[in-house]
Amino acid sequence: MLELLLRGLLFVGEFVLEIVVSYLFYGAGWLALRLLTLGRYPRLPLRVADPMGPRSSWVGAFGFCLIVVLPLAVLVFTYG
What would the pLDDT profile of 22-68 be if each residue is shown by its tens digit? Predict the structure, then answer.
């Protein structure tokens, strides 16, 4: 019984984390790309139904690079 409850909590936590992270990465990538291209790209709206869908996953990947990869690279080159 306890194992079933823990599995359910883990599933719900994973689902919520996936949604929050995907919207966070998509929003950051969308904003950065809009600023870099002076509002021309991406032509997708800020709020999409599936931020990790086939048309918008590259925006999320760019946001991931901005939020995770770029700060890690700066730390490595600074203190590495």
Answer: 889 999 999 999 999 999 999 888 888 888 788 888 998 999 999 99
| CA atoms of 63 and 33, how far apart (whole Å) | 9
| Whole-number Å distance between alpha carbons of 78 and 28 | 24
Q: How many residues belong to the chain? A: 80
DSSP notation for 25-52: HHHHHHHHHHHHTTT-S--S-SS-S-TT
| Torsion sign (Cα): 50, 12, 18, 46 | positive
Find how far residue 31's CA is from the centre of its chain.
Answer: 12
Angle at which helices 57-64 and 2-36 cross, to 10°: 90
